[in-house]
């Protein structure tokens, strides 16, 4: 049998790791090949981040959908639907854990339909940019399933129980502007400006001071799991430590000298 078409196209450019969901049918449904590709990319980016060669990761899409979620037809064509679903969900979840632990920002650029696990992937981003034409739908109840991809966890924390339950249980379509107002995405951009906006954002993040970015992300990611007292103590330690780093020294010198900083 011929090899399946690639599910993910990857490249590294100017300190940015870019992965594009690229199924030929445009749906970017998640099957075994897609889950494996995302997992491999997550591992590669994590290793590159630790090595200092990558400073930003971007996940984006081609086609009419960012992702419609699990590929039910592929699951049905397998020897065991439930076991195939288990493999894909587990592999995807492992990838999301890796991406969420990286000391660099994950940017998700959404242009199109987002459904099922695609919703969870979008909300796993540190920064999610959506085109104005994008639409979101949980979709699980329509086939008798419950959420995966971290969707229920993210929705409950961002929207609160009542709004999360309404969105998940109604199975309705949510437009990009509402997703922005509820905190599901960071920015909504006009379709004609979308590519430029994503490129400008990633360029800005790639040029930011690496250690300060990593510490900012760490503080934000841990803020909900401890007390304010603990967090304040951690913030104090972090800002003092960063003030002694080369980038911290350079940043202050540039500010006092009224010039642009030259971060490492």
Structural overview:
Helix 1 (32-51) runs parallel beside helix 3 (81-100), helix 4 packs across helix 5 (151-159) and helix 9 (210-222) packs antiparallel against helix 10 (228-243). It is globular, with a radius of gyration of 19 Å. The protein has helices at 32-51, 72-77, 81-100, 117-123, 151-159, 161-170, 176-181, 194-206, 210-222, 228-243, 246-256, and strands at 8-13, 16-21, 56-61, 65-67, 106-110, 113-115, 127-131, 135-137, 174-175, 187-189. It folds into two domains: 8-206, Alpha-Beta Complex (2-enoyl-CoA Hydratase, Chain A, domain 1); 210-256. It is an alpha/beta fold and 264 residues long. The chain is built from eleven helices and ten strands.
Descriptive keywords:
six-stranded mixed beta sheet; 16% strand; 2-enoyl-CoA Hydratase, Chain A, domain 1; single chain; alpha/beta; enoyl-CoA hydratase activity; globular; 264 residues
Largest sheet: 6 strands, mixed
Beta fraction: 15-25%
Low-confidence stretches: none
Which sequence of strands runs across the widest sheet?
Answer: 1-2-3-5-7-10
CATH second-level architecture of the largest domain: Alpha-Beta Complex
Measured on Cα atoms, how large is the radius of gyration? 19 Å
Number of helices: 11
Basic shape: globular
Q: Could you give me the name of the CATH homologous superfamily of the largest domain?
A: 2-enoyl-CoA Hydratase, Chain A, domain 1
Q: Residue-averaged pLDDT, rounded?
A: 96
Fraction of helical residues: 40-55%
């Amino acid at each position: 049998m011929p090899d399946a078409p690639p599910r993910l196209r990857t490249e590294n450019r100017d300190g940015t790791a870019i992965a594009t969901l690229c199924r030929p049918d445009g749906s970017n449904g998640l099957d075994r090949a897609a889950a494996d590709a995302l997992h491999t990319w997550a591992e590669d980016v994590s290793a590159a981040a630790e090595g200092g060669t990558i400073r930003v990761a971007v996940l984006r899409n081609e086609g009419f959908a960012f992702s419609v979620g699990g590929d039910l037809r592929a699951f049905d064509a397998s020897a065991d639907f439930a076991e195939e679903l288990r493999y894909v969900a587990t592999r995807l979840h492992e990838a999301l854990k890796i991406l969420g632990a990286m000391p660099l920002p994950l940017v998700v650029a959404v242009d199109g339909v987002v459904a099922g696990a695609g919703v969870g992937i979008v909300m796993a981003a540190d920064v999610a940019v959506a085109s104005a034409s994008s639409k979101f739908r949980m979709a699980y109840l329509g086939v008798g399933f419950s959420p995966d991809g971290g969707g229920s966890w993210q929705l409950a924390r961002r929207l609160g129980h009542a709004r999360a339950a309404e969105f998940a249980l109604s199975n309705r379509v949510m437009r990009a502007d509402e997703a922005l107002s509820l905190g599901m995405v960071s920015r909504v951009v006009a379709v004609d400006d979308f590519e430029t906006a994503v490129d400008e954002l990633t360029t800005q993040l790639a040029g930011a001071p690496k250690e300060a970015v990593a510490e900012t992300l760490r503080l934000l990611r841990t803020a909900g799991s401890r007390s304010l007292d603990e967090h304040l103590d951690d913030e104090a330690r972090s800002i003092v430590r960063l003030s002694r780093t080369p980038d911290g020294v350079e940043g202050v010198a540039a500010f006092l000298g009224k010039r642009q900083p030259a971060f490492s």
